[in-house]
Design a protein that fits this description.
Layout lengths: L3 E9 L3 E6 L2 E6 L2 H6 L8 E9 L8 E5 L2 H10 L7 H7 L4 H9 L3 H4 L7 H11 L16 H19 L4 H14 L6 H14 L1
Parallel strand pairs: 3-5
Antiparallel strand pairs: 1-2, 1-4, 2-3, 4-5
Helix pairs in contact: 7-8, 8-9
Length: 205
């Protein structure tokens, strides 16, 4: 299974790119919020992507969906856990930033979710019912807490939950990965920064 690709962009279209990796061209679908971050990149530029690999009996042709980070990929996995939202529908729907969608879910903002392509009021309500309370690690700024320890937990515990529930790590391993990341960089103060440090260290090993 393909989980990560790094290569040069051969071609860009509205929702997909062709990425050349070791003389093999991979067609990768990109949700709108990911495509927006590579808007300035041109054919010939280097790009690295974390990959969601999709293949089922009903859809035997493999589909690759790309993300800038494991955090974005974990967010996508949660989003497609909502009833009636499959990977291809999610790619088209996620035309707003991850932070904005996560914030809308947590604040139960149906109107913002209805701005997602192909998402109506009924599906927006399903998204909120399924995912509300699970979005803290995908917000760009951790919730302000009264004490430093509580502020730390505001981004550590959600990251631990994603590592275990979405990425399949054992709880003990998740705690170790977080502790090692914080030891390497004590200035970390957000879920995104913590995830980046965890996987930077994982690649080094």
């Amino acid at each position: 299974m393909i989980g990560y690709l790094e290569g040069k962009i051969l071609k860009k279209e509205e929702e997909r790119i062709l990425l050349l990796c070791n003389q093999v061209g991979y067609e990768v679908l990109l949700p709108g919020f990911v495509m927006e971050t590579i808007r300035a990149k041109m054919p010939g530029d280097t790009l690295s992507l974390y990959i969601h690999y999709q293949q089922t009996e009903r859809q035997p042709t493999p589909v690759l969906i790309g993300f800038n980070s494991e955090l974005e990929k974990a967010f996508f996995h949660l989003f497609i856990s909502v009833e009636a939202i499959g990977p291809l529908k999610a790619v088209k729907a996620l035309n707003l930033s991850m932070d904005r969608v996560a914030g809308a879910i947590e604040s139960r903002d149906v109107d913002t979710l209805k701005n997602l392509k192909g998402i109506g009021a009924r599906t927006a309500q399903k998204i909120i019912a399924t995912l509300s309370g699970r979005m803290a690690s995908f917000l760009s700024e951790p919730r302000k807490q009264a004490a430093p320890v509580a502020e730390s937990e505001a981004f550590i515990l959600p990251v631990q939950d994603v590592l275990v529930e979405q990425l399949g790590h054992r709880p003990a391993d998740a705690k170790r990965m977080i502790a090692e990341a914080l030891e390497r960089n004590s200035a970390i103060s957000s879920p995104e920064a913590l995830f980046e440090e965890i996987y930077r260290g994982d690649m080094v090993h």
